[in-house]
C-alpha cells in the first residue's frame, strides 16, 4: 500500500502527509500515482487487448488522473458531455470511450458522434430511436451496445444497486431481443454489443458471474436471430476494502469471465472499473478545529464536511479515520463531524481516536466518489487535490476561492 507510517508520521509514498497539509492547507485530497498504476496493472496484466478496460470517469475525474490512465492505455466510461470533454482535455482517446447514462441529450449524442466514440451504451428503446435520428442528421452511423438489466441482486447498498428490474437502469431482459431487432432495422445504428452494470461495491464474484451467464445466454439468442454481437461489457462494480472486507480476487474474476465467454466464442470483453482503480489511492486530510466533550459522547469537529466527502452522510458509508501523527495518548470514543449545518454531516461515528485541536486526521479510501461528489453547500470552496509521485507532490487542482463560488451570479436591483 502507498500510505504508511514512518516513525509515527503518515506518508503518501515518500511524502509526509503533515507537510502536504502545511503546504497546501486542509481539507486536502492526496492521491498516490503508484497506487493507481498498481490497481490498473492488476486488471491490465490479466486482460490484455483485444479485451478493453474503460475506466469509469465519475469515480475520479481530475485531469491528472485521466491523463495517467490514458498513458496506461485506458479507455473511458463516461456519463455526460462534460466527462467526454474532460477525457479529451486529458489526452484520452475518443475511440476508446463508451457512453453510459439513462438520459443522454441530443447535444451530448451529437458531440460524442463528432468525436467518434467507440460506442453508446443505450438504455431504452426511446433512446435508440433518438440516437438514430441524431446520427442521421449528421450522416453518420452510431455504434451501439444495448445495456440490458440482467435482474440480479448485487447484495450491495440499495442506492448503488442497479441490476434489479426495479431499478431505472437498462433494458429489461424480456425486451432485449425486440429492441436488438429494431436496432438492426434502423439505418443509422450499428449494433456492436451488449452491456450491463449491476451495482457498485460488490464484494463477491457470484453476482457478476450470474449476470454474465444471463448476458451470454442473451448473446446466443441474438446470434440465433441473425444478429452479430461482438462485445460483452460487464460494467464496473468491483468492491474495495473500507473496513476489513475481503474484496473479490480481480484476476480470478477476469479469467473466469474470459473462460465463460470463450465457450461462446467471438467476443471481445469489456469492463468499466471505477472504484477499484482509484478508491484506495486517495485520502482526505482534515484538521481538528475543536474537541468538544459532550454529555453522552465526545465530538471531534473537523474542517472537512459532507460537502467534501458525501459518502458517509449519503450511504452511511464507513471510511477509516487515522491520525496523521500517531500519539501515545489513550484514545477516546468520538464522533468525527464536519462544520456543515446538518445533523447528517459526519465523517465517522463512534471512533476510537486521540486527537485535539490542530491535529490532522486522514480519512482513508477517499479516492473514488470523494472529490467528484463534493459540493459547495454552505458556500464552502471545494478542496485542493494533490498527486504524489515518490517524494514529489504535484498540485493537480487548486483550492477554490470564495469568489469562484458566485461566478455567474447577478444581483437584481431592489425597487425603492
Ligand atoms: N459503469 C456504470 C454504468 C456505472 O454506473 C458505474 C458506477 C460504473 C461503471 C463504475 O462502478 P465502480 O467500478 O466504481 O463500482 N457514488 C457511489 C457509487 C455510484 C456508482 C455509480 N455507477 C459511491 O460513492 O459508492
UniProtKB/TrEMBL annotation:
Q: Any idea where the Orn/DAP/Arg decarboxylase 2 C-terminal domain is?
A: 29-367
This protein's pathway reads:
Amino-acid biosynthesis; L-lysine biosynthesis via DAP pathway; L-lysine from DL-2,6-diaminopimelate: step 1/1
Active-site residues, as the UniProt record annotates them: 341
Binding residues for substrate, per the UniProt record? 275, 311, 315, 342, 369
What is the documented function of this protein?
Specifically catalyzes the decarboxylation of meso-diaminopimelate (meso-DAP) to L-lysine.
Q: Which family does it belong to?
A: Belongs to the Orn/Lys/Arg decarboxylase class-II family. LysA subfamily.
Name of this protein? Diaminopimelate decarboxylase
Question: Which EC number(s) are documented for this chain?
Answer: 4.1.1.20
Which cofactors does this protein require? pyridoxal 5'-phosphate
Query: What Gene3D superfamilies does the annotation carry?
Result: Alanine racemase, Lyase, Ornithine Decarboxylase, Chain A, domain 1
What biological-process GO terms show up in the record?
lysine biosynthetic process via diaminopimelate
Q: How does it assemble?
A: Homodimer.
* TM regions (residue ranges): none
Taxonomic source organism: Pseudidiomarina indica
Which EC class heads this enzyme's classification? lyase
Amino acid at each position: 500500500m502507498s500510505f504508511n507510517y514512518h516513525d509515527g508520521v503518515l506518508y503518501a509514498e515518500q511524502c509526509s502527509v503533515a507537510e502536504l497539509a502545511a503546504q497546501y492547507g486542509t481539507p486536502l485530497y492526496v492521491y498516490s500515482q503508484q497506487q493507481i498504476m498498481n490497481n490498473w496493472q492488476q486488471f491490465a496484466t490479466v486482460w490484455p487487448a483485444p479485451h478493453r478496460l474503460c475506466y469509469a470517469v465519475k469515480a475520479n475525474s481530475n485531469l491528472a488522473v485521466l491523463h495517467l490512465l490514458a498513458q496506461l492505455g485506458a479507455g473511458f466510461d463516461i456519463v455526460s458531455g462534460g466527462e467526454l470533454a474532460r477525457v479529451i482535455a486529458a489526452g484520452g482517446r475518443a475511440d476508446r470511450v463508451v457512453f453510459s447514462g439513462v438520459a443522454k441529450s441530443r447535444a451530448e449524442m451529437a458531440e460524442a458522434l463528432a468525436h467518434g466514440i467507440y460506442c453508446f451504451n443505450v438504455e431504452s428503446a426511446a433512446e435508440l430511436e433518438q440516437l438514430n435520428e441524431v446520427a442521421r442528421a449528421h450522416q453518420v452511423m452510431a455504434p451501439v451496445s444495448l445495456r440490458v438489466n440482467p435482474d440480479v441482486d448485487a447484495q450491495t447498498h440499495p442506492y448503488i444497486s442497479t441490476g434489479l428490474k426495479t431499478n431505472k437502469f437498462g433494458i429489461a431482459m424480456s425486451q432485449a431481443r425486440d429492441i436488438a431487432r429494431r436496432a438492426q432495422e434502423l439505418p443509422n445504428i450499428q449494433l456492436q454489443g451488449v452491456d450491463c452494470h449491476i451495482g457498485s461495491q460488490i464484494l463477491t464474484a457470484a453476482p457478476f458471474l450470474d449476470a454474465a451467464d444471463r448476458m451470454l445466454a442473451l448473446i446466443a439468442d441474438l446470434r440465433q436471430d441473425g444478429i452479430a454481437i461482438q462485445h460483452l461489457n460487464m460494467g464496473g462494480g468491483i468492491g474495495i476494502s473500507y473496513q476489513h472486507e475481503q474484496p473479490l480476487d480481480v484476476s480470478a474474476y477476469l479469467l473466469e469471465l474470459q473462460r465463460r465467454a470463450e465457450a461462446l466464442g467471438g467476443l471481445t470483453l469489456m469492463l468499466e472499473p471505477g472504484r477499484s482503480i482509484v478508491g484506495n489511492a486517495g485520502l482526505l486530510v482534515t484538521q481538528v478545529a475543536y474537541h468538544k466533550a459532550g454529555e453522552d459522547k465526545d465530538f471531534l469537529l473537523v474542517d472537512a464536511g459532507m460537502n467534501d466527502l458525501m459518502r458517509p452522510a449519503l450511504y452511511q458509508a464507513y471510511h477509516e479515520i487515522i491520525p496523521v501523527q500517531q500519539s501515545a495518548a489513550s484514545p477516546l470514543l468520538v464522533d468525527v463531524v464536519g462544520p456543515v449545518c446538518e445533523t447528517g454531516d459526519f465523517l465517522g461515528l463512534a471512533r476510537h481516536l486521540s486527537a485535539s485541536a490542530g491535529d490532522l486526521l486522514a480519512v482513508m479510501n477517499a479516492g473514488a466518489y470523494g472529490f467528484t461528489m463534493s459540493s459547495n453547500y454552505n458556500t464552502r470552496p471545494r478542496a485542493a487535490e494533490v498527486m504524489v509521485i515518490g517524494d514529489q507532490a504535484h498540485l493537480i487542482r487548486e483550492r477554490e476561492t470564495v469568489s469562484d463560488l458566485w461566478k455567474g451570479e447577478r444581483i437584481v436591483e431592489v425597487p425603492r
